[in-house]
Design goal:
Keywords: Amino-acid biosynthesis, Aromatic amino acid biosynthesis, NADP, Oxidoreductase. The chain has 286 residues and is of the alpha/beta class. The chain folds into two domains: 17-114 and 256-285, Rossmann fold, CATH 3.40.50; 118-252, 3-Layer(aba) Sandwich (Rossmann fold). The chain contains eleven helices and 14 strands. The chain has helices at residues 4-8, 32-42, 59-68, 93-98, 117-127, 144-155, 168-177, 211-218, 239-246, 255-270, 276-284; strands spanning 17-23, 47-53, 73-76, 90-91, 103-107, 110-114, 136-140, 160-165, 181-184, 193-194, 197-200, 222-223, 227-230, 251-252. The strands form three sheets. It has a six-stranded mixed sheet, with helices on both faces. A six-stranded parallel sheet has the order 9-8-7-11-13-14. It has a two-stranded parallel ribbon with strand order 10-12. Helix 6 (144-155) links the parallel strand 7 and strand 8. Helix 2 packs across helix 11 (276-284) and helix 5 (117-127) packs across helix 10. It is globular and about 60 Å long.
């Protein structure tokens, strides 16, 4: 992967449209800046995409700066997908229902929030020919990514959705909002679980990120599982993949979802339809 400096050390024209990704320290793991900047160049759009690390208490100031600096659009990642909503002028119907935003379009000083996570997750599942209809799903996590997962699984007519989270009240609210069932996170390894699909919607995919969750995941037994889907990507010694391998379950990470949702985000920002393969090729070239 090329360092970001290799992507950004150029002189931009005044007319260059600037886009960004807003996150905390996790922004430095994002592959989106290099991916989007490469696609802009390949399709002939005068655009640049830069990473912004924002402290929790400065989110409002960061959003106001999008207006002041005439930033054309922004990606919002964990942990700000829900917290960003009060600072926006309007939400798309999907973002309003889901209760989380991962894409912002800035136009005429107004910020509109969208959610392309959900459709990206659906496209990723379609890519491995996994039919959600009539299936039992287990979703681990309660943040903005989890909200998109639970929404799209419900929309795709999953038979049942169990949501497991650390905060019992937040878990209950999310599950009930989408007609699901809450589960204490500590119960993941207590007894065998029944699920056709397991989705990790937390930010944790390796032991160095959380010893406690690693212990729970390693102790999981899932009966009848057909797919483990980790929304994160690029992790070494992935605990979800290890769990899947131990139980002989197919596994996919979040790279395919990233590509799928990036294509949708690009369309919102530019009005241009770009084949999914262009985004995948941009990632492969890093």
């Amino acid at each position: 992967m090329k360092p970001l400096s290799g992507v950004l050390d150029t002189t931009y024209e005044y007319q260059t449209k600037v886009f960004c990704v807003i996150s905390n320290q996790r922004v430095f793991r994002s592959r989106s800046p290099a991916m989007f900047t490469t696609v802009f160049a390949r399709v002939g759009i005068n655009g640049a995409y830069v990473p912004f690390m924002v402290a929790d208490g400065n989110l409002g100031k960061a959003l106001e700066s999008l207006r002041v600096l005439n930033i054309a659009g922004a990606s919002i990642t964990s942990p700000f997908k829900e917290a960003v909503i009060p600072y926006l002028d309007v939400l798309s119907e999907g973002a309003n229902i889901i209760g989380a935003v991962n894409t912002i379009v800035s136009k005429d000083g107004k910020l509109k929030g969208y959610n392309t996570n959900a459709i990206g997750i659906m496209d990723a599942l379609n890519g491995v020919q996994f039919d959600v209809a009539g299936k039992k799903a287990l979703v681990v996590g309660t943040g903005g990514a989890a909200r998109a997962v639970v929404f799209i699984l419900n929309w795709l007519r999953a038979e049942s959705i169990v949501v497991a989270g650390r905060d019992n009240e937040k878990t209950r609210r999310l599950a009930e909002h989408f007609s699901g069932t809450p589960l204490k996170l500590t119960d993941l390894a207590e007894a065998p679980l029944n699920a056709d699909l397991v989705v990790n919607a937390t930010s944790v995919s390796s032991q160095d990120e959380s010893d406690s969750l690693t212990g729970l995941v390693c102790g999981m037994t899932v009966n009848g599982c057909q797919l483990v889907f980790d929304l994160n990507y690029g992790r070494r010694e992935n605990i979800w993949q290890a769990m899947a391998d131990k139980n002989d379950i197919p596994f996919i990470d979040g790279l395919s979802a990233l590509v799928c949702q990036a294509r949708r985000t690009f369309l919102l920002w530019t009005g241009r339809e770009v084949p999914q393969e262009e985004f995948l090729r941009a990632l492969e070239d890093q």
